[in-house]
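Message: Just now I want nothing more than another pair of eyes on a protein record. I am handing you a single protein, as its sequence and its fold in token form. As I understand it, each token names a local backbone shape. Take your time, and here it is.
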Amino acid sequence: MTLVLPHIGRLPAGPLNAISDVAGVTVGHATLAQGAIQTGVTVIRPHGGDPFRDKVPAAAVVFNGFGKSIGLVQVQELGVLETPIALTNTMSVGSVATAQVISAIQANPEIGRSEPTLNPLVFECNDGYLNDIQAMAVSAEHYRQALASAAPEFGQGAVGAGRGMSCFDLKGGIGSASRQISVGGMPYCVGALVLANFGKLAALTLAGQHIGNGLRRLRKTVPEAPEMGSIIMIIATDAPLDARQLGRLATRCGIGLGRTGSIYGHGSGDLALAFSTAQTVPHRSDSALRQSACLHDNLLDPLFEAVVDSTEQAIVNALFAAESVSGRDGHRRLSLRDAATGQS
């Protein structure tokens, strides 16, 4: 079977076709890849400054809540981010959240004293098929490495938090994409980044073409098992939106996810978060009133389309970028390319 990386939808991609096409957004990884340890951390910085001092509007949506993320309650209540977004494996959420708090305190020593405490934000997926997740190998140092390495250009596939992830019983991981749009005569960008760890092989759909059964004939060793994966979908945009509108954007991630063959299986945690870089919310302000401008709701359709297409594209890009990986107890996940060519 010959596979060609498709362009999803009709909208053009940004120069990098990545979430970092939204100006100021950067991504960094720390990857652990040795024997049974196949895991890591990925960090998304919403801008180059201090997000505790200059927060960005955000909203999160839970499609299926089989997950162990931290920080979503406050995002839902206050509608802002005050740390970078961290992705890792399920059993490393605690250590990464602690690392986020320590990093923020180093920059703002009065956190938890004269200042409020911090809301760390960590999303997770279970990479236990390939990774010895019980080893809890991810440390605070790995978070610091990922944060320090954040840049506009970054790896995709089996890197960072995506190192041990599986997608449609193939190798999954980190994927990213972007779409450029015009709203009211103004140019805007929407970028997506996913941690793809979901789906059953037979359901895999690529740009509307159902290819899972064809791959199944090549991969007769894939056992039948319930859906036990997850996906985290992060959306960034430079369009001026408030938290309510960003929640509407995050909801559209589910369309792009469904197009690839997901049914939000019982054991799958499917979550999305959207944020805007168009304006920041200062931690402290001398003014009693906060002035902000937002797009009218009746102009949001181009953004919705961009979210759907960039989410689907990011999942596809994760599959195409990933390499085959062997890990715990001899478990192996073939990349999409290796599965399509019959390699083992």
